[in-house]
Structure formats: structure tokens, C-alpha cells
Specification:
Helices cover 42% and strands 11% of the residues. The chain has helices spanning 16-23, 44-66, 69-79, 99-106, 118-131, and strands at residues 89-93, 110-115, 135-139.
């Protein structure tokens, strides 16, 4: 019997402590309370500027996680909840420097990452190339240019 597909959301602002708690089965990613990096920011241009100025340093932080034991922790948390032996069509919205898209692509999934910020997408492309991860990255203007059912 094929596993039923359910939406799977990752709140990237999860702390290392929360990640450990999730691994212990105490809470799930779906029940994690979202946090925000930009308190009070509602303007898209302001948010875009904020992330554009931090793209390189944020990318470096993400890449550090891809090169240490946190990578394995993220893989355990995320991949254990996906159907086995099946390549999914994954959409990474707000992909930033590509961390989750890279993990998913290296696990054999077909990944499209989208972001509002061009500097983040430049970092994402560079990072994916460094890991040999086939991720398609697209710049969006706030709306998703995909048909329904384009992703699993």
C-alpha cells in the first residue's frame, strides 16, 4: 500500500535544542511554532534588503551545517518522514542559500527552490554546485508560477 502524501513543512528557524527535541519524538516539525528573523517587518522590499545584506553570512552558516553532524540530524528528521524509495517533486519556498533543497536533492528528490532575493539565489546556486546537487532555483516576485499538483 502506498503511503498517503501529506504536506510537510520545515520551519527553518528551529534551534538546535528544538531539533534535538524533535529527534526524541517529543514534538514534530509540524507543531513547531514559527519564529521570525525580522520582527515588525511587513514590507517586502525591506525584508528583501535585510536578507540581501546577509546572504553571504547566512549562506556560510548554512554550509557549516552541511559539513558537520547537524547535516545527519536534519536528514534523520526530514527523510524519515518521507515515503521510501520514491523520488518526490519538492518545492522549497523561501529557499535562501539552498540548504534544504540541497539535502533533498542529494537524497534523490527533484527539487525546485524559489526565493524573492537574488543574492540568496546566487548563494543557493553556488552551494548546490559545490555539492553536486541538481536543484532548479528560480526568482519569484511573490506569487508561485506553478500549476496545482506540480509538487508532491
Amino acid at each position: 500500500m502506498k503511503k498517503k502524501r501529506v504536506p510537510f513543512y520545515v520551519v527553518w528557524t528551529v534551534t538546535n535544542v528544538e531539533l534535538w527535541i524533535m529527534e526524541q519524538g517529543v514534538i514534530s516539525l509540524a507543531n513547531t511554532v514559527p519564529k521570525t528573523y525580522w520582527p515588525g517587518m511587513t514590507d517586502v522590499e525591506e525584508m528583501n534588503q535585510y536578507w540581501g545584506e546577509r546572504a553571504q553570512s547566512y549562506s556560510e552558516q548554512n554550509q557549516n551545517q552541511l559539513s558537520d553532524s547537524r547535516r545527519e540530524a536534519w536528514e534523520r528528521v526530514i527523510l524519515s518522514r518521507l515515503p521510501e524509495g520514491e523520488a518526490l517533486r519538492v518545492l522549497d519556498v523561501g529557499c535562501g542559500p539552498g540548504f534544504l533543497g540541497i539535502l533533498m536533492a542529494l537524497a534523490g528528490h527533484r527539487v525546485t527552490g524559489v526565493d524573492l532575493n537574488s543574492a540568496m539565489l546566487d548563494e543557493a546556486r553556488k552551494n548546490a554546485a559545490a555539492y553536486g546537487a541538481p536543484v532548479r532555483f528560480l526568482h519569484i516576485d511573490g506569487s508561485l508560477p506553478f500549476l496545482d499538483e506540480s509538487f508532491d
